[in-house]
Amino acid sequence: MTLTSVKAHALQWGTGRPLAALAPRPPFTATVVLEDAAHLDALLGSGVAGPGTVVLVPGDEPTAEPEPHEATGAQVIVWQGSLGEPGAEAGLHPDFYLQVQAYSITPYLSVLGPTLVRIVEEADFQAFLEDADRALNDGEFSAFLTHPSVQLADLGSLGGAGAGDGPALRLYVAADGSVSVAPGATPLGPVGAPAAELHRAWEDSTGALAGVLDEDLRREQLAARPWISRYLAAVGAIREAVTRGLEQPRVSGFGGRLVPALAAHAAPQDTSGDTPVLLFNAEQALIHHPGDRRTIALSPGAAQAAEALLVTGAARAAADYADPATVDAVAAYFSGIGLPLTESAAPRTATRTAARAAAATSAATEGATR
Fold it and tell me: Residue 92: what are its φ and ψ, rounded to 5°?
């Protein structure tokens, strides 16, 4: 197993968000973390692990190569440390150590390497909400959270868009043998419980933070922020933008717009966590797609047209805020690459001029990367 694969399993397990690089293999769990090696035999005999499963077992030091388990086809990796205790460090590979931190203390920390930020108590949740509110109102995002080496744990329970969390994606076996999807979740059953039993318990559970947060409080606070999935998408987009050299990026819809007049547009359409995110500074602009993580650089005029399309949701309306020919070009370009910026994705007109403009827009972009 490559170091890249180990990192992918750690990221997917920590965030609770499926990665395209790790295709699920039902009915088996993708990644299982054990806090006590004594539970390994019971886990492997339960039917939870199979081909494609990575099982992390604690030991004296992390191993570079997994040990295949012949009966199940799972890959067993020795790891060291803790993935649930704030302030701890987990060695998942000789060349990969992951720090674990509580959210509320991140303003006082420096990023020293790959870090997983957890909500471990109500104070962490309140700090998370305050950061989200500040980003929406002022456009100021947490420097720690948006660092490319940092990931936020348990995204689905914090309002993140998309489904996929649960026993098919990840499991955590605590030192007492209880099985959950994450250290902050309520137990689904004891180690050795059949996969079907764990899945049924998950369907009746309230998420990956039910063990650390009052569920009524969590639901109430997230419901009061219907844009929270958009905020989490923006955080991820900033990380991607920074790795591509966009310094101090601003995010459209958070503290303002690239096209100022769009700030007053009624009922903006770019409030979902699944909608592409426009990022910009004085010199550059990027569009990031939260779903497949494609990031595309745009010329200034194309960026204005793209923002107008995202906010208004229609090419005809977008033409009131940006050059009409460029609006048609941008709508056609993104529709053509499978990333439509509006539901209809239709340009105002299907003219040769728009087609030529679309080609020019494609040439003006600096490339699309995953």
Answer: -100, -10
Q: Is the pLDDT of residue 347 over 60?
A: no
Which residue in this structure is represented by tokens 């490319």?
148
pLDDT tens digit sequence for 43-53? 999 999 999 99
- Bridge-based pairing of strands 89-93 and 368-369 is unpaired
Q: How much of the chain is in helix, strand and coil states, percent to nearest 5?
A: 35, 15, 50
Q: How far is CA 68 from the centre of its chain?
A: 30
Number of residues that this document lists for the chain: 370
The CB density around residue 320, as the number of other CB atoms within 10 Å, is 13
φ and ψ of 183, to 5 deg: -60, -25
Q: What stretches of 20-148 adopt beta strand conformation (E)?
A: 31-34, 54-58, 67-68, 75-81, 89-93, 96-102, 115-118
Going by C-beta distance under 8 Å and a sequence separation of 6 or more, which residues neighbour residue 223? none
Burial class (CB in 10 A: 0-12, 13-18, 19+), 70: exposed
State the pTM of this model.
0.91
Residue 313 falls in which region: left (phi positive, over 0), alpha (psi -120 to 50) or beta? left
Contact 236, 290 (CB under 8 A): yes
CA-atom Rg of the chain in angstroms: 22
* Amino acid letter, residue 365: T
d(CA 120, CA 84): 9
DSSP per position, 135-188: HHHH----TTTTSTTEEES-GGGGT-S----STTTEEEE-TTSEEESSTTSPP-
Tens of pLDDT, residues 52-95: 999 999 999 999 899 999 999 999 999 999 998 999 999 999 99
Closest CA to 251 of 168, 326, 331, 307: 307
For the segment 279-329, what is each residue's pLDDT rounded down to a tens digit? 999 999 999 999 888 999 999 999 999 999 999 999 999 999 999 999 999
For residue 282, give both structure tokens.
């004085």
Angstrom distance (rounded) from CA 104 to CA 120: 9
**pLDDT for res 349:** 58
